[in-house]
Amino acid sequence: MTFFTLMISIVLSVGSLAWGYAGIGLIPLARWLIFCGIIWLVSQWRRWWWVSSVMLIVVVLVAGLGLWVEISPGWMFSGGIFALLAWDLTDFRRRTQFAAIDDDQRGIERRHIARVTLIALAGLALSSIAMFTRIQFTFEWAVLLVIVILLGLTQLVGWFKK
Amino acid sequence: MSRALLLSTLFYGLLLAGLVALRSELIAFALPFVVYLFSAMWRAPESIDLRVERKFSTERTTPDSEIIVKMTVMNQGADLEELLIEDKIPSTLTVRLGSPRHLLRLPKGSSFTFEYTVSGPRGSYPFEAFHAEATDMLGLIQRKQIIPTSGQLFVFPNVQRLKNVAIRPRRTRVYAGTIPARVGGVGTEFFGVRDYQPGDPTRTINWRASARHSENLYSNEFQQERVADVGIVLDGRETANVFHGGRSIFDHSVLAAAALADAFLHQGNRVGLLVYSNYLGWTLPGYGKVQRERILQSLARAQVGESSVFAGLQHLSPRMFPAESQIVLVSTLVQDDLDILIQLRARGYQVMAVSPDPVSFEVGLLPVMEDVTLATRVVRMERNLLIRRLQRAGIQVIEWDVSRPFDQAMRSALMRPHLDISRRVS
Hints:
Chain A is an all-alpha fold. Chain A has 6 helices and no strands.
């Protein structure tokens, strides 16, 4: 179940980005993305767990670039969220390989996939709301964001130190 | 790189990029990542509070017998969404059935029980740690804990029953036993004839001797049978035990030591054990079942070792053994041991050397070649010479071809009382 969902996520992630780039005529980049997607798929068979982390970074950068050059945000968001899902499921697969035969692995998988899907949906909903209610990006908003970033970073550093 | 760190970097990177470029799409794109991050942090395990119980189907067993280990893990803390538990088993044990590792969800106050079956070679196996790793539901934040546990599994060597081992130490102890004490008194074996003393039972009167000397009556005297002190020395030196291709004969020596200790204790003797390896593992002399258990535990732990300090047997101090007692050396015997053993014999100890035959053992590991055959003949001659010298010094040497079971091969040799060649020669 996890493997199937993971494969679908990789295909949808890379497919969305490639489709978005192909839409504006950047066919060579779309081809490169599909090639990367194939490597990502193969890495799952070969259990090269680290490939998913690299691909997540690549997908986020490519999606960010796509947003910058004003490709349809739907494809870019979809690419990013499915990459996040694939990255999560790769690690989940790595963790469940330690399970014993008589463990309730199907139950663990079912619960995990349900949760991570809900989280992805919540993230997508928030992004969509943010996109629909485009607030004018003023200086005040920028200051607020900087404060949020600083607070978040401080919290994060403290958390890692712990 | 930590997964949480990677995700945080991506989130803040997108946020900063959005700020710098004044593009709200980039900030909106960062939102799914922050939702993921906060979901993980929200349900992150604070701490692990587990109680672990371990039960063995038996704590003492023999090599390659199966032992069922039953584990119960109780969660005394908060809910654990994803818990990976592992009972750390010693590396030389083999899991036959089940698994010592499980992945599960363990709600607060609940418990989980699992079993697995292990087996292994001779040894002492401490079970000291139980590993637990709890993660949040997304596996982003981990808490690891090693829970100290107690548990010890002993795989004793197979103890083969020897009916009787005939020893004749010069000195015996005061308690009645089975070893002829070279002292007249109550016993079963004829010892001599003496003058009749009032109170002697009439059935002890030697009528034939009395008839020859009409003025006096004579009584038969029997040899007292008592228990003795026996010190078993198990040679664990690498030079004496490890041969071609790292193959060791030591387990055979351990088997012999176990069988001998069991037989001596069964006869009521006071038995001690010295494992002579890269250290001196001394089990103080004692009697009975408790001592048998101590000796078997020591034999389970015994390992071959190499040390320049204990390269020779010179640390085999006579102070370790009661004077004129019986010493049983279980060793393949090397040339350098000759002098030490003769010295022990000269101090009045009765020395028996039970020697697993290293030549036939090593030949079995080598290819059939002319060179090997020639070398075997030379080594065999050297060994025979060494054994002959030991025998001439009054040391009883019993050779054991380890391809035959110890009890079958040794029964007749061990039951025969030792004929001291040295006395006959002198």
